Amino acid sequence: MKLSVIASGIALALTLGGCQSTQTTQTSTTAATAQQNNKVFAQDYVLEELDNGLRVMVVKTDYPDVVSLQIPVSVGSRNEVEEGKTGFAHFFEHMMFKGSEKFPEDVYADIMKNSGVDNRAYTTNDYTNYHLNFSKQHLDKVLEIKADVFQNLRYSEEQFRTEALTVKGEYLKNNASPIRKLLAAVRKEAFDKHTYEHTTMGFFEDIEAMPDQSEYGQTFFKRFYKPEYVSLVIVGDVDPKETIAMVKKHWGNWQRGDYQADIPVEPKQAAPRYVHEQYEGLPGHWLLVSYKGTEWNPNTKDRAALDLLSQLYFSENSELYQQLVVEKQIASQMFTYNPETKDPGLLHVFVKVDDEENLAVVRDAINQTYAQARTELVDEGKLAALKSNAKYSFINSLDSSQAIASTLASYMHFERDPEVINALYQSADSVSAEDIRAIANQYFTDNNRTTVTMSAKDAVAGFDAEVQLDTLVADINNKPTEQLFTVLDKTNSSPLVDVNWLFYTGAAADPEGKKGVAALTAAMLAKGGSQSMSYKEIQKALYPIAGSFAYQIDKEMISLRGRIHKDNAEQWYELVSDQLLEPGFREDDFARLKKELIDGIESGLKASNDEELGKEVLYAELYQGHPYGAYNYGDLSDLEALTLDDVKAFYAKNFTQRNLHLGLIGAVPEKVKAQMMSDLQGLPAGEQARLDIPDAPALSGHHATIIEKSAKSTAVSFGFPIETTRSSKDWTALWLVRSFLGEHRNSNAKLYERIRQVRGMNYGDYAYIEYFPRGMFQTKPDANLGRSEQIFQVWLRPLRSNNDAHFATRTALRELDKLISQGMSEVDFNATRNFLTNFLPQLVASQNRQLGYALDSQFYGTDNFADYVRSQLETLTVADVNRVIRENLQTDNIHYVFVSGDGEDMKARLANEQVSPLKYNTEKPAELVAEDKQIESYKLAIPSKNIKVVPLEEVFK
After folding, report:
1. 125 located within any domain
2. Which pLDDT band holds residue 685 (cuts at 50, 70, 90)?
3. What is the DSSP letter of 104?
4. In this structure, are 285 and 231 located in the same domain?
5. How many alpha carbons lie under 13 Å from residue 155 in its C-beta half-sphere?
6. Residue 54 contacts residue 42 (beta carbons within 8 Å)
7. 891, 765: one domain
8. Are 768 and 738 in contact (CB under 8 A)?
9. What Cα–Cα distance (Å) separates residue 88 from each residue in 188, 362, 507?
10. Nearest-5° angle of CA 777, CA 781, CA 785?
11. Dist. CA 744–CA 749, nearest whole Å
12. Taking residues 57-76, what's their average pLDDT?
C-alpha cells in the first residue's frame, strides 16, 4: 500500500494528476514514433484493447530477465458512493490475495514464494494497483494465477471477517500518523457530497461494521473487478507479441460488466472553512492549508500550472521554505502534496511548528505567498528551469523495468493510454508566467480554502483572526503603480556606479522606549542577509566584484549606499536589492547587530572616544524631550529590549516610496536602472514624505554637564540651538563665520590659532553650525545628515587637565564674545571667503560626495550645493556677515559639556569661577601672558544649580 507521495521533494511527474476518461481506443497500436524529442515517455510500446475491454500495454526493455507486471484497476475510494460502505476498494486490495478455487490462498502464496515473486498492492482515491516483479520465465504462470483470481476470487466468511479485523488494525496504525489524521480531517471538512470526503481507508464507523458486510463485499467485487476497469502493464525482458498471446489466453474470456458508479458532484464551496483536530500527546503543532483543485485533463494547462506553482512557491527551493524552515526556523517541516485525482481534489501545504503562536505566523505567510502568486509574474527563467528539471527528472527516473511499469500504472487508470504522459508535459511546456498567475487567481480564493490545525490542545489560541486572501491580493493590487519616490539621476560615463537610497526617516522616528530601532533596522538591511541569502553568502559574492553596501543614520535621514563597477552592476544590484527589499530579518543577524550597536556605544563611544562622547552628550542635553534627544544609535536599555518584531515594524512603516529619494551617478546600465525603478515600486506607498520636527527646546541661561569617567584629559563641547539651517538665506554667511572661528581640522581658524597655535594646549579647536559626527576620523563632513534643526557648537579637542579645559573654554567664550561685539574685520572676511571659495570644490571632489550633496540640496530646497554656496559667497559683504553674527550668535544661553576624570573637581572649578592659570614650558610674549591673566578669570557664569555630574555608566542608558 502507499499513501501516494507525501514529501517536499515530489517529482512533478508524479504529482500532475487526474480527470474523467475521454478515450476508449479499441485498436492495436505500435508507437513507432515514440522516440520523438518532445516526448518524455519515448519507449516503444504495444497497446491493445481486447474485445472484453481489457487494456494491455507491453514495453520491451533491455534490462535482462526481470519483468514487472502492474495491474491498475480503476476503482478507488472515489467509487464508494453508498452510505455506510466506505473503505471497500481498499478492503478488496487485501482480499485479492486470498486466491481462487483453482489457486487457494495457501497454494497461491506458495507458488508466488517459490517463484520469487515480489507481490504487493496499494489503493488510492481513483484506482487500486497490483504490482508484481519476477523473473521472465514465470510470466505465463503469474498471468494465469492473477487472471484466475481476478475472475474467480474465492474466500470464506471466516476469511472475510478476519481480514476486516486486519483492516481495522491498519486504520488504527495509520491513524497514529499526524499526516493521515490531517488528511482525513481536511477531506471530511472540505467535501459535502463528493466521495473524496473520505480517505481510501474509509470512515472508521464503516470499518467497524465491515465484518458483517460479506454479502456487500461480493457485490462490490462483481461491480468493479471487470475487464473494462482493468489494465495490464507488462514491462521487461519480454517479447511483446508472445506476451499479448499469453494475456489473451488467460484473460481473453473474462466477461465485461456494465456497472458505472454515479459519482456525486461537489457543490461550489461558499466560504473558507477551518477545523481544529485534537491529538493527545502530539509533540508540536501542525497546520494544513488546502485548496480545491482541478480535475484531470492533460490537454489543458490547469493541472500542470498548479503543480508548477506548488513547486515554485512551496517546495524546498522556494523562498517561503527558506524563510520559515531554514532561516527563521519557525517551522521544522514544510511540504506540499497534490494528489492526482479524476475529479477536483485538494492541493495541500503542510507545516509543523514547535510553538503554538507560530501557527498563525506560518498561516499568514502561506496566505501572503498565495497572494503573491496571484499578483506577480514569476521569473520566466526560474519557470523554465523548473520545467526542464521536472522533464529530465522524469526521464531519469525511468531507469528500470519496475520504474517504467509503476509510472505507467499511475497514469493508465485515467484514460488507459500512456500518451497522456506526453500530453501532460506538452501542456506544462506551454504554461507561461501569465498562465501561472491567471490560474492562481482562479483556484486560490478564500472560498476554495479549508484549513486544519492539529495539536495536543483542544483549540489554538488566537487563530480565528485570519486575514482573508482576497484582502491581501487587493492590498497588493492597490499598491501604487505610479512612482512615488523621487529620483536624482546624475548618470554619466564614469565606470564607477554609485547608488544612494536616501530615506527621509531616522533616529527622530524612533518610538518612545525603542530608541535605536532605526539604527538597528538600517544595520539589518545593510549588514544582514536577505530572504534568499545569508549575510556571509552575500559578502562572499560581493568580494570578487569589489561591491560595497553600507548605511549611515542620522535624525531625519537613513542613507543606504553602495558602489560597484559598471561591468558588475547587475550582479551587485541583485544582491543588495534583496537586502533592501527582501530582508531576511534573521534572528542571528539581529542578535549580532544589536550586540554591535551596544558594544559601539559602550566600548566605542563611552569608553574610548571622549571627544565624540562630549559632542553627543551636548546634543542630548540641548534636545531633551525632543525627537533629537536620543543618540542616533539608541539608548542602551532600549536597545537591550528591542525585538526583531520592532525592527520589522519600523521597516514596514518607514521604508516607503514617499520617504525614498533615490540617487544615481556613474554609468548605471539601463537594464539595472529599469529593474530598480520597477522593484522600488514594490515598497509600500507610505503616508509621510518627511518627519515633522518641532522647534528645539528653549535654552535659558548657562548650564554644564560633566561626564565623569576614567580619563587623563578633559574634552569640551559647548553650544546652543540656532534657527538657521541650509534652507535659510543667511546660512552661507553663518557658514563663513563658523569657518573663520573654527574650520574643522584647519590651522587657519581663530580658535585653533588662539588655543593650539600660540598656547599649544591641545590638538584642535573647531566650530560648527551643522551636525558633524566622526570628526576625529575625517577632515570633511559627510553628506546626508540633513536636519530641520541645528545647533551652533564649539569643540575643543581634549585638554591636558581640568584646569586647561577651564582655561580653553574661557578662551573660546571670550573669542565668541569678541566676535559678537566687534564683528569680523574686512581682512578676516575676505580671507575666509577666499578660503571657502577655493576649498568648496574639495567638499564635492568625489563622485559619491557629489551625489550625496545633490540629494541634500533636494532636502533643503536649494540649488546644487557648490553653485549655491559659490553664488552666495560672491555677493556677501562683511556687513551681511556681521548682521548674521548678531542675529544668530549669543553667549547668554549656552550648555557646556565636559568629559573629565574628576567630575567633582570640574564642577567646583565652574561653580566657584576658580581661576585657571596657564603654565608654559617656555617663555611667552608679554602680550600673551597679559591676555592669559584676563582669560584665567573670564566668567562662564554657570550657576551651581545648573551644573551636574553624571557617571559614565548613566550616559545613554
Report:
1. yes
2. confident
3. B
4. no
5. 25
6. no
7. yes
8. yes
9. 18, 37, 69
10. 115
11. 9
12. 94
Residue 18 has pLDDT above 90, yes or no: no
Question: Do 294 and 339 sit in the same domain of this protein?
Answer: yes
Indicate if 212 and 63 belong to the same structural domain.
yes
| Contact present, 496 and 847 (Cβ < 8 Å) | yes
Asked if residue 378 belongs to a domain, the reply is yes
Q: 443, 306 in Cβ contact below 8 A? A: yes
Which tens digit of pLDDT belongs to each residue from 490-546? 999 999 999 999 999 999 999 999 999 999 999 999 999 998 899 999 999 999 999
Count of structural domains, the chain: 4
Domain membership flag for residue 8: no
CA 749 to chain centre: 52
Nearest CA to 701 out of 943, 950, 914 is that of: 943
pLDDT at 248: 97
Residue (of 314, 307, 319, 442) closest to 387 by Cα position: 307
- The SS3 call for residue 560 is strand
Task: Please give the pLDDT value at position 542.
Answer: 96
Among residues 656, 680, 704, which one ends one of the domains? 680
pLDDT in tens, 72-103: 999 999 998 999 999 888 988 888 989 899 99
Same domain, 493 and 457: no
| The pLDDT value given to residue 31 | 36
- What rounded mean pLDDT belongs to the chain? 90
> In this structure, what are the phi and psi dihedrals at residue 587, rounded to the nearest 5 degrees?
-65, -40
Residue pair 620/648 in contact by the 8 Å Cβ criterion: no
Place of cell 481534489: 345
Torsion of the alpha carbons at 580, 596, 710 and 809, rounded to the nearest 10: 0
CATH at residue 730? 3.30.830.10
**CA Rg, the chain, in Å?**
40
Same domain for 862 and 748, yes or no, is yes
Q: Which three cell numbers stand for residue 176?
A: 497514529
Pairing of strands 558-565, 496-503: antiparallel
Backbone angles phi, psi at 7, to 5 degrees: -165, 160
Residue 916 counted as domain residue: no
> How far is residue 222's CA from residue 151's CA, in Å, rounded to a whole number?
9
d(C-alpha 351, C-alpha 764), whole Å? 63
Domain coverage including residue 515: 486-680
Show the cell assigned to 266. 461537489
Considering the domain architecture, whether residues 542 and 662 belong to the same structural domain is answered as yes
Residues 283 and 344 in one domain: yes
Q: Looking at this protein, which amino acid is placed at residue 250?
A: H
- Per the listing, cell 540649488 goes with 863
Q: State how far the Cα of 943 lies from the Cα of 934, in Å rounded to an integer.
A: 21
Beta bridge partners of 430: none
Q: 566 or 20: whose pLDDT is higher? A: 566
Residues in the chain, total: 957
Please say whether the beta carbons of 481 and 681 come within 8 A.
Answer: yes
Q: Residues 794-816: what's their mean pLDDT?
A: 96
* CA distances, 785 to each of 597, 632, 859, 902 (Å): 19, 11, 10, 34
What's the average model confidence in pLDDT over 252-257? 94
Torsions phi, psi for 54 (to 5 deg): -70, 130
DSSP β-bridge partners for residue 445: none
Rounded CA gap, 527 and 900, in Å?
Answer: 35
Contact by Cβ (8 Å): 947, 907: yes
User: Is the pTM for the entire model greater than 0.90?
Assistant: no
Please answer whether residues 321 and 315 qualify as being in contact, where contact means their C-beta atoms are separated by less than 8 angstroms: yes
- Say which residue the cell 603654565 belongs to: 919
